Amino acid sequence: MKKELFFVRFLKNPLKIGAVFPSSRFLATRMIEKINFKTAKVIIEYGPGTGVFTKELLKHQQKDTLVVLIESDPYFYQKLVEKYSGKKNIIVIHSSAENVEEILKDLQITQVDYIISGLPFASLPKSVTQTILEKTKRVLETDGYFITFQYTLYKLADFKKYFPSISLKKEYRNLPPAYILSCINKK
């Protein structure tokens, strides 16, 4: 997708899109570096947008690993369906990350190994952030990872409330530079 189209989607709904340009391949590589693809059975991606992280996930996906993409923007959802429809072990869902428990119940999945997120938590209402983080914690396996990136550490305290064990890295080769938060689910 061209950067101009991404920018138009941002202008139409800045609270949901949260970025002016798609994430860089450098950020995508950093986002997946904690994933053990040899053992992962289920990986969810919140807000895949143009699929920059999805592309990296699928490069390393094992044949028995299920990847579930949850996208709320109708345009991005349609583009993801066009790209991945009919591909083995990839499911594209048009919904919000707030509905992750219901989505997994419908798919008959009880726990998830990894959740990657491109959601703009800094621009989401506090109640939405809390709902997503609470449900994310519940669906993750013990010692599973919730990995997200943020342009600021504005909501770091919210993440720590649900995930006290967080490692932080910064990727400068992104516009703008981004923090990668790797949150381990300790129960």
UniProtKB/TrEMBL annotation:
Q: Tell me which domain of life the UniProt entry assigns to the organism this sequence originates from.
A: Bacteria
Q: Which residues form the signal peptide?
A: none
Keywords (A to Z) from UniProt: Methyltransferase, RNA-binding, S-adenosyl-L-methionine, Transferase
- Which InterPro entries does the record match to this protein? KsgA/Erm (IPR001737), rRNA_Ade_Mease_Trfase_CS (IPR020596), SAM-dependent_MTases_sf (IPR029063)
- Cite the PANTHER family for this sequence: BLL8166 PROTEIN, DIMETHYLADENOSINE TRANSFERASE
State the name under which the record lists this protein: rRNA adenine N-6-methyltransferase
Identify the species of origin: Kurthia gibsonii
Show the taxonomic lineage.
Answer: Bacteria, Bacillati, Bacillota, Bacilli, Bacillales
